[in-house]
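User: what does the whole thing look like in 3D?
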Amino acid sequence: MIFKYAIRNVMRNRRRSIGAMFAIFTGVVIVLFTQGLMDGMLIDLTDNYIKFQTGNFRFTTPDYGKRERFLPVDQLISDTPLLIDRLQSIPGIILVEKRVRFGLLMGQGENTVPAMGIGLDFKNTSLDIKAKITQGGIPVNGMVIGSGLAARIGCKTGDEILIATNTAEGGLNGIKVGVSGIFKYGITMFDNEVFFLDLASASRLLKLGEDFPEILVYARNPKAAERMESEIRTLNKEGLLIKNFSEQVGGYWSVILASMKILYIFEFIILVLASFVIFNTMMQTIFERLEEIGTLKALGMTDNAILWNFTVEGAVMGLLGGGIGGVAGHLMNIFLSKHALSFEKAMESVEMPMSYSFRNEPNVPFTVIAVIAAAVISGVAASIPALYAKKLSSAEALKKV
Amino acid sequence: MLLSLAFKNLTRYGRRSLLTLILIAFSITVYLWMDGITRGIREQSFDNLINFETGHIQIRTKEYDEKKPFSEKNFLTDQNEIAAKLLKFDFVTGICMRTRLIGEIDNGRDSVPVVAWGIEPEKDKDVFNLYDFISEGALTEGGALLGKSLASDLDMGIGDYVYFTTRTTGGMLDSIELEVTGIVDSADPGVNNTAIFISLSDAEKFIDMKGVSQIAVKTRSLAALKTYCKTISEAFPDHDVLDWKQLGESFITFAETDWKYGLLFIYLFLFLAFVGFANTMLMSVYEKKREIGTLKALGMTDLQMQGVFVLEGFWLGLAGCLTGIVFGTLFIWYFTRHPLDYSKIMGGDQSNLGYKVLGKIPARWSIVPFYTSVLMSLITSMGASIFAARQTTKMSPAECLRTKQ
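Assistant: Here's the predicted 3D structure for the full assembly of 806 residues, as structure tokens:
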């Protein structure tokens, strides 16, 4: 019955109720927009780290872990094929990849720039290279190169480039490789610095043989990765270094998680600020209805019923405003997930695997939580003036009219 | 009279006015706080860019191309004449020559690409701050200064030897052994992570020619840089003369875009305040319908009536803004005294999230966010009040007086 009263009271002064609901609507839309943007950036960053660098798990030698900055190609995992076979037998693992990364100064003609090569199996990789090729194609033997890197060294598909670097045996080696394709991932750091080389050419250049410095393991999703972690770690009989995603990302990850917590606090504050309008509206409503409050109390309505009546009225306004805001905010996030904002120029100096196109991420559970939070916070805001109404005796209420 | 009427209206509903005031005050506090913190990071980054990499102005060859570090066309060969001419300008307070090389440094086991700067040990401090950040040793002929984290990663200390491999202008690969004679612990992660400094004469031996890739200039004032640039350009029409903003264009674009994106959140806060404000003022208008009717019946014009409500909004906006400024100022003051430790936030990681800063970065003051705050809060509050006040023009005195309150 209280709920019915509340709905009826909301409809009594529609213009005022709409004003209050619009504030909650605005608050929820702002919350969903900011959360969608941050979720989008976080998912993009996590996805890129996992695909390019960390996998869900990565096997290396302990010494590789210590010297990773230098991408040491002499730190090979012995019996790489055997370990890969064993890993592939674990249920839930969708891909096991051997890779080698190496740094070098890459040049053509007078142009010379620092670059990073990644040796991988073009047919068996988490990187969807084919979809990112803008010119040429994927080679059987050869390289595909980032669009920015290609522009910086002035090369095009069909060119042959001499690449020289230190080998696993300690000496210097160089090979000529044809550029089969040019890719563009939309990540400045990769497009400007990275090229991919087929495994055979990488092995020939770096004198690796069958063994590789990195084995990346991919699970279907983070939860599946968590489930299989202990089983993966039991495979480590050779004293290898196994790190999951968050162990590898380290400092960055803590910063991102801390930022997300700060964002939640801000979002809560936004809803509290929006609920001030509900407070104001309910305060005015109570003063307007002092006569009714007095009459109802004289007729036997309990103090608690009065309290709940106004509290639910505030919550209903929060639910309606928040509900419409939830739908609008969610639709906006869907739109912004399909129409990304590009910051290519601005992201040139950022040394993180972050796409320069920002996409919002629609999140249904979060939208539902935001709407419920809007209703609860509005109810709490309304309960403060409602407490005032509760404390009034019927005589006091009627005297104040 | 309208002003005092509006002020009186505010105090009639103290609690409602207070809550509306908080909406504005909170937005302004967050804005000032964010501005102070990010201004600190941004301006420290700009300072580091100027003090470690670009100087105020640089003179290079017209054909200079960073992608072609070994091209002969990248090197000035008339550097001494240019330097002599530059010193005649009264606004030039210091000049130095630098040569930029790209190469690999290795400790016999690991190697990594680095930028090697050939510098003039005696003159570099006339333009750059590098010497203030040498934590150990010094730069000598045949020696090298290494960035602190680069040295640490390579497990190198004073007295150890590293190999630096690069190409000569003739295209030949050349490698020399350098003694680590000093460590630089700078406030710029780029310098700490990927830079080595050698003497200019050692760099000349490397490139096998008597030339430098740039002459860096320090001037009397950053504010007059455009004029100085123009004057120097006219004196050296065959060379490129660039100021630090042109040299650090991509970084400046990043910093400014990042700040504009941050401002978006402030605008969203202000929009929320606008909605709350409009709601309060609308309630105020509808509550006072009878009074509006009485005043109109007594001859108050629509414009005067609107004025009362707009002024009510003005007072409330001003009060909210001033409260926000007080809290915002306290926040900025706190963070200037207790700077955020950027390196600690990054978990000791010396990488950067786009900015050129390390260690503790204090918040910085600027007058701009303060007058912007006043402007934004008055626009928000008066805009919302105008919206509400317009409702009074639609009300006839008779209709208002019939209203039961």
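In plain terms: The mean pLDDT of chain A is 88. DSSP finds 15 helices and twelve strands in chain A.
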